[in-house]
Structures are given as C-alpha cells and as structure tokens.
Amino acid sequence: RSEEYLYRVCKEYFNVDNIREIKELSGGHINETYEIIFDDCKYVLQQLNSSVFYSPQGVINNTRLITDHIRKKVIYEGKDPRRSVMSLVKTRYDQDIAIVDDEYWRCTEFIENGISYNQVPNKEVFYEIGRAVGNFQDLLSDFHTRLIDDPIKHFHDTWYRYQGFKRVVALDEVGRVHECKKEIKFINKRKNKLNIITSKIEAREIPRRVTHNDTKSSNVMLDKDTGEYLCLIDLDTVMKGSLLYDYGDAIRFGASTALEDETDLDKVGIDFELFESFTEGFLLEMKPKESELIENSTKPISKEEIRLLYEGYHIITIELAMRFLVDYLLGDIYFRIDKKRPQHNLERARNQMKLVTEIEANEKKLKEIINKILIKLEYDPDNLIQID
C-alpha cells in the first residue's frame, strides 16, 4: 500500500497531521492490518477483504452488535471496557466503516498493554487463551443468533465445503489436480466424519450459537504484565455456528508443535500439555452455574457438546486441510500466500493433514485428558466422554 493511500484512509478517521507512523502488522491470512501511531495513543486500521466477505457492512454491523452486548456485561462485572472488549472507532461522518476507492476499512482502539501470540509460548498463556474463548461464549450465550448476519455463507458447514471440494477437483480449473492426488485421497477417505457436528445442529441435538470462528492465539489479547486474558479481537468471522469449532480451531492452531505453514512434517504434532491447559481454561469458564441449570438452556455448554469436543478438534483440522487444498487448486484466491512460495497453500494443507493423523492416532489419550479435566472441575459425572 502506498503511504499516500493509507493517509487518505486515515483521513476518514483522524487529523492526519498528528500521525507519527503507520506500521503494517503481519500474520493474517485475509485482511490487511496497520497500526496507526500517534504521540499519545494508537489505533488499528484494517481493510476488509470484499472478495471474501460478501457484505462488509454486515461484518461491521455484527461487530457493533456483539461488542455493545459484551461491553454492557463487562461494565456490570466491574471490568475495564477499554480492555475487555474490542472498540470500534467512528469515522468523521459518525459511521462504523470507511469506503475509500471502493475498498472497506474499519478502525478499532488499540488495547493498551495487551499482547497476542502467533505461537503459544507456554501452558500458562494457553490456559488464559482457553479462558478467553470460554468467556466469549459465556458472554454471548444469551445473545440471539437471529440478530446477526453470516458474512461468509456455510463458513463451518464442513459437509457443504466437501461438496464444493469435489466440484473443484472435478473441474481442475488451473490444472493442479495432478499434483495433489495423495492429498485429495486423504480428504475423501474422511468424508463420513465431516457432517457429524452440522447434522447435530440441524437436528437440534446441540445448539446453534454465536461463535467467533477464528480463535487462533493471535486473536486473543492478554495483559502483558499479569498474563490474564483480556478479550478476543478480529471479529470479522463472528456468525452463527457451533462452539465446538471455536474450541477445536483454537487447539488446532495453538497446541500444534509447529506453525501451520511448516514444511518439515516431522515437526508437526500435538503438545498434550498445551491441549490440557487450554481445555481446562475453556471448561472452567463454561462450567454450569447453579442459576443456569434450567431446562432447554443454551447456557452454558451442554452434555452433547462436551461429548463432541474431540470431534470439534478433529473435524476443524480436516476442514482447514481441505480449505488450504481447495485454495491451491483454485489458484490461491482466498488465503494470502508468500509470493516466494508458489505451493504455500499446498504446504499448509499437507501440514494440517499431518496434524489430522496425529489427532487420530491419539484419540483415546485426548479424550482421557478431557475426562480428567471434567472430573477436576467437578462437572456432573454424566458429562464424561465414552471411550471405546
């Protein structure tokens, strides 16, 4: 981005004469993100990818509704709303979104003394990230799903994505299928797993909830000094879904022993200590309170959802492998890639497939860890996962 263009965007929000520096922030697969630095404060400016989100205005509307709801609750709880929830900045025309040269931009307040991690450094950090994801679910458990839009249709409808995957393979529009025979076979072999969660939502066996849908560790802010969780950020993908995917995606990313574009597959595995710490933090925040134990309540986590926690981890990892592979087969149109790595998305797909095999090989151990935590947190024994 040219500096001249970025200053034009900033002018929608600020007096640009007072800006000291504009710094690009890396790490995201989809949107461009910049830190706007003044002498005494900072802001985060982000371009919304309109080729990914069919309705950028819907994304911003969701964000406004969700953050307003959370803000009221954290104020009631005595927390600092400037640090416990993401805050949108209005344009000079009192709007939540700026449109410059047909591109959509939003601005949020910088969370002072906050930190996020692209790779989880230790179990204490991941425990707090687990609490943050669980707390996000708890805060929104009474927010009606019909109030928000789905900015990406069928985002975590894994069976729908599989049907799309088959069409992409059949069409082979950019001639890459011949490179990916082994990877395509890997996905097809696991097709019967892919509708377990979505079919239970449709059958109302588990509730449809407001979910974040991108709970990687870099989207969770912690306090630099105390290490305690503050809030979730990057709410673009907030929509209706299952908390099982929020749980599973956080672990998929954070408890892997390698980043998701690592090409040395021998390095890709599960850090069981991190898996356990996140799960304990998550289930602590989701534990039923006496006042919430009412019939047909969607708050907090249900018995059936607990029994499917492993499936959430397993299925979301298959889904990401499939999504990276599809994007490679389509010519890299969704995820941002390193231009020096022409097979970047295929490398990511192979990385996730290796992680899937690790999850499958350790199914019993993972379920035993979840049960150990349920017992430790004094959940009802009826919630324990059955292990074959």
Describe this structure in words.
This protein has about 400 residues and is an alpha+beta fold. About 45% of the residues lie in helices and about 10% in strands. It contains 13 helices and ten strands. The chain has helices at about 5-10, 55-75, 80-85, 125-140, 160-170, 180-190, 195-200, 245-255, 270-285, 305, 310-330, 345-360, 365-375; strands spanning about 20-25, 30-35, 40-50, 100, 105-110, 115, 210, 220-225, 230, 240. The chain has a five-stranded antiparallel beta sheet, covered by helices on one side. A three-stranded antiparallel beta sheet has the order 6-8-9, covered by helices on one side. The protein has a two-stranded antiparallel sheet with strand order 7-10. Strand 2 (about 30-35) and strand 3 (about 40-50) form a beta hairpin. Helix 8 (about 245-255) crosses helix 11. The longest helix is centred in the C-terminal third of the chain and has 22 residues, at about 310-330. The protein is globular.
Short recap of the structure:
The chain is of the alpha+beta class. It contains 13 helices and ten strands.
Number of helices: 13
**For the report, how would you describe the main beta sheet?**
5 strands, antiparallel
From the helix content, strand content and strand pairing, which structural class follows? alpha+beta
Radius of gyration, in Å, reads: 21 Å
Residue-averaged pLDDT:
92
Instruction: Give the oligomeric state.
Output: single chain
